[in-house]
């Protein structure tokens, strides 16, 4: 990439799709998961704050910023469950990576596709430490836009190859099953969430209805299960019955954010939870017994997006899958911004004078 100060590499949706395909979905998820795990190991180096949210009756718009002192990243993301009724995505996003030393952005990228990949990679990283060893069967309740990414990440990173799918919309399950055909999965389409969890060692909940709606009831969760609670997180968005939470060892990304938006919003503010970075760094145990119920209350955190932005920028050097945006005003004399505008004016053509003969 050229390092002209006014030029910012931009990764469009088309570029992102080509990057994923050129890399291979499984390899992309494995490498992205490694970046996330690397950043979780240096968790204490990052600025951390709950995402800045603007809630409405229709959904939420959020900004997710963080910095490791050398680079600064943020993601703009929304969550509007009703969008699918009008042919739109529930979640869309874009992100920026910038140089802390001078404040100049060094990457602008779509993050609708990248967020789906990041969320799946994060789920698999958590399950690497929390799921039963050798688990191969996963129930997936909610078969929308995130489902295939979750399935492929769990297969690539943990070896999960048996899927039990359920969605209140059978066409969503059919689409998911079709999209995953030929990828090495044994897939069972189920008629209820109760049926889906039968025999599953891992249960992933990934619905997007913005209301207090219980997807898993206490009687559906037996000992030894790992629950990957994804969903479309916001106040009022819960998928697990409270009694499940009380029986589980709960692991989270950043407690101040999760207590607002995650499953644990149902619990007392001081209910004990374990931060996942402490498990990854070996400071505290993850799964410690065969009958233990582990719950990753996933809400997504800015450091994960930072990892995704880092990964994409590193891949651009070898793929060239970006375009150059003239995004920043960069006058020859930094103090002469107005003069830059004046110099951009086209010179007025001089009319030819014809003398009288």
From TrEMBL:
EC number from the UniProt entry: 4.3.1.12
InterPro entries tied to this protein: NAD(P)-bd_dom_sf (IPR036291), ODC_Mu_crystall (IPR003462), ODC_N (IPR023401)
Leading EC class: lyase
UniProt cross-references to SUPFAM superfamilies, sorted A to Z: NAD(P)-binding Rossmann-fold domains
Pfam name, any one: OCD_Mu_crystall
Keywords annotated in UniProt: Lyase, NAD
GO molecular function, one term: ornithine cyclodeaminase activity
Family to which this protein belongs: Belongs to the ornithine cyclodeaminase/mu-crystallin family.
PANTHER family according to UniProt: KETIMINE REDUCTASE MU-CRYSTALLIN (PTHR13812)
Protein name per Swiss-Prot or TrEMBL: Ornithine cyclodeaminase
Organism: Sinorhizobium terangae
């Amino acid at each position: 990439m050229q390092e002209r100060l006014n030029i910012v590499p931009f990764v469009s949706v088309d570029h992102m799709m080509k990057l994923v395909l050129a890399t291979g979905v499984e390899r992309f998820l494995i490498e992205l998961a490694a970046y996330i795990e690397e950043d979780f190991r240096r968790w204490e180096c990052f600025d951390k704050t709950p995402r800045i949210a603007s809630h409405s009756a229709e959904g939420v718009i959020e900004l997710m910023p963080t910095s490791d002192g050398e680079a600064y990243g943020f993601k703009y993301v929304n969550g509007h469950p009703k969008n699918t009724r009008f042919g739109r995505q529930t979640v869309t996003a874009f992100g920026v990576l910038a140089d802390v030393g001078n404040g100049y952005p060094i990457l602008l990228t779509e993050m609708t596709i990248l967020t789906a990949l990041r969320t799946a990679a994060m789920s698999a990283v958590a399950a690497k430490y929390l799921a039963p060893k050798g688990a191969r069967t996963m129930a997936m309740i909610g078969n929308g836009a995130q489902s295939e990414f979750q399935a492929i990440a769990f297969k690539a990173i943990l070896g999960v190859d048996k899927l039990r799918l359920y969605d209140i919309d059978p066409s969503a399950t059919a689409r998911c099953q079709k999209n995953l055909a030929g990828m090495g999965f044994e897939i069972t389409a189920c008629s209820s969430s109760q049926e889906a969890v039968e025999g599953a060692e891992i249960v992933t909940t990934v619905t997007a209805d913005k209301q207090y709606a219980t997807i898993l009831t206490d009687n559906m969760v037996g000992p030894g299960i790992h629950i990957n609670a994804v969903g479309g997180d916001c106040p009022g968005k819960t998928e697990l019955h409270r009694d499940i939470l009380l029986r589980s060892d709960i692991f989270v990304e950043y407690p101040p954010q999760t207590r607002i938006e995650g499953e644990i919003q149902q619990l007392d503010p001081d209910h004990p939870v374990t931060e996942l970075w402490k498990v990854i760094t070996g400071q505290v145990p993850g799964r410690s017994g065969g009958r233990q119920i582990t719950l990753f209350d996933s809400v997504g955190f800015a450091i994960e997006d930072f990892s995704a932005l880092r990964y994409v920028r590193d891949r651009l050097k070898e793929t060239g899958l970006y375009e150059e945006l003239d995004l920043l005003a960069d006058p020859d004399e930094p103090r002469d911004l107005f003069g830059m505008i004046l110099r951009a004016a086209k010179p007025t053509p001089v009319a030819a004078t014809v003398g009288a003969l």
